[in-house]
Amino acid sequence: MTNAGRLRAFIFACLAPTLIVYGLFAVVPIAWSAYYGFFDWSGIGDPKFAGWANYAAVVQEPLFWRALKNNIIIVGASIFGQLPIALLLAILLNRNSWFGRAIRSAVFMPMVLSTVVVALIWKYIYHPQIGVLNYVLKAIGLESWAMPWLSDPAINMYAVSIPVIWANIGPYLIIFISAIQNLPSEVDEAARLDGATGAKKLVLVTLPMIWNTIKVTVIMCIAGSLKAFDLVFVMTHGGPAHTTELLATYMYNSTFAVYRYGYGSAISTMIVLVSAVLILLSQLLMTRKSQ
Amino acid sequence: MTKRLKGFVSLVLLGALLAGCGSSGSNGGEASAPAGSSDSASAEGGERVSLSIWHNYSGDDLRAQTVRRLISEFQEEHPEVLLDSQPIPTDSYRQRIQTVAAARELPDVFLSYSGSFTDEFQKAGLIQPITELLDGNQEWTDGFLPGAYDIFTYDGEVYSVPVAMSATSFLFYNKELFEQNGLAVPKTWDELLAAIEAFKAKGVTPIAMGNQAPWVAQSTMFGVMADRLTGTEWFMNAKDGSGASFTDPIFVEALGYFKQLSDAGAFQEGANSLDNTQAEQYFIQGNAAMIMNGAWSISNWAASASEEALQKVGVAVFPTLPNGKGEANTITGGPGGGFVLNAEAEGRKRELAMELIYKLSSAEAQKAVAESNSMVMYDVDIDASKVTPLFNDAFGLVKTLSFSPVYDLYLSAAGGEAVNNGLQELMLGGDPAAVAEKIQAAQAGSAQ
Predict the structure, then answer these.
(1) Interface of A with B in 19-48 (CB under 8 A)
(2) Cβ <8 Å between B270 and A129
(3) Is the pTM of this model over 0.90?
(4) Measured between CB atoms, does B43 come within 8 Å of chain A?
(5) A–B: how many Cβ contacts below 8 A?
(6) Which terminal residue of chain B, N or C, has fewer Cβ atoms less than 10 Å from its own Cβ?
C-alpha cells in the first residue's frame, strides 16, 4: 500500500464510527420515514400500500401550506431577529468587562431553562386575563393594545415568534463572540491606521472576516426553525383552528392525534426536502454576496 | 483454517444472539421467578404468573387513589401474581396505548374508552370477550344501569363493563350571581341569550370556557347543543354516512348556534388560549356566571375549592333550542371506560386477568369509586356524607336524564379533530357551512 493510500484508510477508519452512528440514527430513519410515507396505517391492523397517495395529499392540503407559511415566518424571525441581535450584542459585549459578562449570562439564560418552562412563562405573559403584558399595557394607558395574543389569528404567529427569538439568541451570541475574538489583532490595527473606525470598520472589516461564521449560523437558524416544535406546541398546540400550526406540529398532530402514521411520515419527508431547498437557496444567495 | 475460524465465530455469535433473545423473553414472561421455585410454588396451588395492567388513574384525586388501592388489594390477595401496574396520565394515555398496539405489545389488561377506541381493538382482534365473567355472576350483572355495557357488546359478546359513567356537559351556574341579577337559570335559547346580555352588561363573563385543547367546546357544549337540534338518530346516521351528512342544513344550523353564542360574547376573551383547568378556576372564583363541563369538574373542585365557593354552584342541563328535533333532557355521555382483556391472554393468566377485571368493576369497587365523588353506571347506595352536596345534586340529576352521544367518542379520530378545530374556527369568525364541509370530508375520508 502506498503512503497516501494508508493515510486514506486511516482517515476512513477514524471517521467510520461517526459515519456508522450518523447513518444508523439519522440517514436510515429518514429513509424509513420516507418509505412509511407510502403506506396507510392507523397504528392498529396492517399497513396498506398506498403509493404516492400520502405525498399527493400532503401537497394538496391547504393546511400543509399554511404550516409552511407559518414556518417561514419563524425562519424569517430567527434569521432577521436572532442573528442581528446576537451580532449586535456580540460586538457590544466583546470586551470582557463585568457588565459584558453579566449581560452575556442573562442572554444565555433561556438556553439553560427547559423549553417547557420557557413556553409556560410566556403563556402567562400573554394570558388574556392575568397576563403581565396586557397588565402593563393597561397600566401605561395603552388599553386598546391589550389583546388575546395567542388566540387572535391576526397576531398570534408573531406573538409566538418572539419567545422563539428570545430563547435562542444565546448560542449565536457565543458563536459570534468567539468569531470576533479570533480575528487577528494586526488587521484591527491596520484598519485603525487606515482610518476605519466604528460602523465603517464593522462593515468593511469585521463582517467580511466573520462572513463564514455568519453563513454557518444561517444554516443552523434555518434547520433549527424548521424543526421548531416544543415552544409553540406548549403555548398553543398549533391552534386555535390551526392558526399557529408549524410543519412539525402539523406532522405531530397528523400522526399522534389523528393516527395517520403514513401521512405523518410523508410530512416529515417534506420537512427534510423543504429544509434542504431553503439551506441551498440561502447558501447560493450568500455566496454571491460575499464575492 | 480461516474458514473454520469464521464458521466458529459466527456460531458463537449466533449462540449469543439466541441467548439474548431467550433472556429477554423470560424477562417479559416470568421475570424474576427462579427456575427452582416455580415447582414449589405450583405445589402450593399455582405457578407465578405475570400480569400487566395499564390505566389512567395516575393522579392524586380521590378516584385515582381508590382504583390504585383496589389494584394493590388484588396484589395482596394473589401473592403468586407478579403484577405490573402502569398508571399513565390521561393526556397521553390514548397515544401510549395506540403505540404499544401498533407494536403488538399491549398489556394483558387495560382501560379502554367506550366507542370508537374499543371498536378499533375489537375489529383488529386485539381483545377478547369477558362474557363468561358476566354469566357467572348474575347478581353483579343485574346491578348495572340499563344499557351500561351495550356499547361494549359486539355480536352478542361482551368485551368490557364500564367502571365509570361519563357525563360531559353539565351546565354549572353560580347561584349567587344569578340571584343578584334577578335571573333564572335559562331553560330556552332565548333565555340563555338574555342572560348572556345581562351578565355582559354587568361586566361578568357569562360562560367560562378554556378551549386551548380543542376537545373542550365539542365535548362539554357543542355535542349536547347539536343533539337538541338534530336528535341522536341523525347523528348516528351522519357518522356512518347512511342517509345523513354533516353538510345537512340542520347541522350547519347547529354550528350556527354555537357561532351565535361566541359572537354574542358569551365566552371570556382569549378562550381559545386557556386551559380547561384555568376556566374551571375562573368560574369557581366567581368570575363567570356559568360554565359547561363534565362530571370531572366536581371532583376537581371538591379537591381544590373552598366549601363556600362550592355551595354557590348549581347544576342544570343545556337549554332547549327553537324547533329542536332532539330531546330536551339529555346530557352527552354514557358508559365511560372499562377494562378489556388482551386477546393473547390464555390459561391461568386469562383466569387471573378476569379476576382482576372483576375486582375493579365489582359492586364494591363501583361503590368505592362513587364515594370518591365520581359517577358510575351501577346501582349503588352512596353514603351521602362521603361526597359533596354538588356531586349528589349532579348524580341525582343525571339519573333523571337520558344520554346522547359524545361526538369524539363516536366519530373517527380525524372526524373528531375536524369538529374540534372547526369550533375554534367558528369562534374566530369562521363560516358554518365551510366548517361543515371539512367535518364531512374528514369523517367520510376516514370511515371508508
Answers:
(1) 41-45
(2) yes
(3) no
(4) no
(5) 89
(6) N
Sign of CA dihedral B247, B248, B252, B257: negative
- Band the pLDDT of B196: cuts 50, 70, 90: very high
| CA neighbor of A110 nearest in space, from A135, A147, A145, A85 | A85
Q: How far is CA B409 from CA A203, B151, B166, B404, B417, in A?
A: 62, 11, 11, 11, 11
Measured in angstroms, the CA of B47 and the nearest CA of chain A are apart by 33
For B340, the 3-state DSSP assignment is strand
CA–CA distance, A74 with A87 (Å, rounded to integer): 19
| Grid coordinates belonging to A257 | 392525534
Interface with chain A: mutation pick from B272, B276, B277, B448, highest number of A CBs within 10 Å:
B272
Cβ–Cβ contact B286 with A under 8 A: no
Of B95, B270, B282, the CB nearest to A256: B95
- Tell me the C-alpha distance between B282 and B7, whole Å: 73
Whole-number CA gyration radius for chain B: 25
Residues of chain B with Cβ-Cβ distance to A241 below 8 Å are 214, 272, 421-422, 424-425, 427-428, 430
State the complex-level ipTM.
0.82
pLDDT of the residue at B13:
43
pLDDT in tens, B184-194: 999 999 999 99
Interchain proximity B214–A45, CB inside 8 Å: no
Say whether pLDDT at A31 is over 50: yes
Where b means 16+ CB within 10 Å and e means fewer, A179-196 reads bbeeeeeeeeeebeeeeb
Q: Do A128 and B270 touch (CB under 8 A)?
A: yes
Question: By the CB < 8 Å criterion, does B427 face chain A?
Answer: yes
Task: For residue B231, give the DSSP letter.
Answer: -
Residue A199 CA to residue B69 CA, distance in Å, equals 71
Three-class DSSP category at B144: strand
What digits encode the pLDDT tens for the residues B97-125? 988 988 889 999 999 998 888 988 998 89
pLDDT digits (tens, 9 = 90+) for A241-253: 999 999 999 999 8
